[in-house]
Amino acid sequence: SLGWILIDRCGKHFGTILNYLRDGAVPLPESRREIEELLAEAKYYLVQGLVDECQAALQQNKDVYEPFCKVPVITSSKEEQKLIATSNKPAVKLLYNRSNNKYSYTSNSDDNMLKNIELFDKLSLRFNGRVLFIKDVIGDEICCWSFYGQGRKIAEVCCTSIVYATEKKQTKV
């Protein structure tokens, strides 16, 4: 009676729909999930041109696989600091440098190194939504786990020790 219509929808993609109505074109989101969300809203508002564009983008990206679990491999300490500082999740970093002091490993060191890497991979697959997992392959340590919360380091566990065997010093992982 007052000339108003209440639209009870999430406003996340409403700006994109308004821009499409105004300009006749909009850049589509990169993620498949967001395109699907935008498609649902475009269908609701009966914006057929945007519906067609979203469907075409989804069809084109049908074979593109979006990974379930993404683990960044850091390339600098600055990148590491930025990742940890900007994350709102706790972080676990595995630093492993298999080439560091390679020829002084004990006989079980390679197996133990692989066990650490496999554990990290299993944890990252299981808890990827709640924890940021980071791989560091440029550090000076051989094998070291670091744990971060609220942007600062909470704990660190080094997986190596020096073993003095007969006639030579060896590194045990």
UniProtKB/TrEMBL annotation:
One of its GO terms (biological process) is protein homooligomerization. GO terms for cellular component: Cul3-RING ubiquitin ligase complex. Pfam families: BTB_2. One of its GO terms (molecular function) is ubiquitin-protein transferase activity. It comes from the Eukaryota. Residues 4-54 form the Potassium channel tetramerisation-type BTB domain. SUPFAM superfamilies: POZ domain. This is BACD3 protein. It comes from Semnornis frantzii. The lineage of its organism: Eukaryota, Metazoa, Chordata, Craniata, Vertebrata.
